[in-house]
Amino acid sequence: MRLVFSLFKINTPSSPGFSLIELMVTISIVVLATAAVLMQYSGFNNVTLLKSQALEVSLDLRTAQQYGVNVRTDGGDNRSAYGIYFDADTPDEYILFRDVDDNLAFDAGEQIGDVYKLDSRFTIAALCVPNSTNTHTCSADRKASAAFKRPNFDAVIANSDSGGGSYTVRNGGAGVRYLTIEIASKTNPAMKREVWVYNSGQIVVE
């Protein structure tokens, strides 16, 4: 009988299980690894969203370009220029406009449709144009626009002075080679992308 019982005897393990300290260390390692992965994902996600916002602004500029070059009417002359207007006083939005008075710049009453809104996480940090010596300069106080008119795809750039006044077309004479719209994260201003509008009509996201 003893022999039978010995055959079915359950042996207890000779080594004990995890201690409480070992379990806590293991959990800590898992938590730290998970946090690191989540932080990396969050950073990647923010970069992707910022790039998407810059691309959206560039697409709206291209839409204005298409409106200006193609035959489009909004209850007025189909030869009107169309453009996008930016104002540092309202850095979370921008305006599509039809140039009713043919001065190739935005004026009150020329807005078309609703105001375009940026994602609440981003803002237009600066508008940049070359100065008189064609040096790249930026100012948070500037107002600026890029307008497009048939038959060319060229952009006509207008902007204010550094104090935000005297908003005028800058494409006369030597002209302005480009307008840069700098879009940045509100929580991390160092994270930014730029949309460049060249007077040749090229629109690029940097």
The largest sheet has its strands arranged as 3-2-1-6-7-8
Oligomer: single chain
Mean pLDDT: 81
The CATH homologous superfamily corresponds to: minor pseudopilin epsh domain
Overall outline: elongated
Q: Which CATH architecture would you pick?
A: 3-Layer(bab) Sandwich
Uncertain residue ranges: none
Q: What's the Cα radius of gyration?
A: 30 Å
**How many separate domains make up the residues?**
1
Q: Spell out the helices and strands N to C.
A: HHEEEEEEEEEEE
* CATH domain class: Alpha Beta
Number of DSSP E strands = 11
Supply the helix-strand structural class.
alpha+beta
Q: According to CATH, what is the topology?
A: minor pseudopilin epsh fold
Largest sheet: 6 strands, antiparallel
Structural notes for this entry:
By secondary structure, this protein is α+β, with helices and mostly antiparallel strands. The chain has a single domain (35-205), classed as 3-Layer(bab) Sandwich (minor pseudopilin epsh fold). The chain is 27% helix and 29% strand. It is built from two helices and eleven strands. It has helices spanning 2-7, 20-69; strands spanning 81-87, 93-99, 116-117, 122-130, 136-139, 143-148, 155-159, 168-169, 178-185, 192-198, 203-205. The chain has a six-stranded antiparallel sheet, with helices on one face. A five-stranded antiparallel sheet has the order 5-4-9-10-11, covered by helices on one side. The longest helix has 50 residues, at 20-69. The chain starts with a helix and ends with a strand. The mean pLDDT is 81.
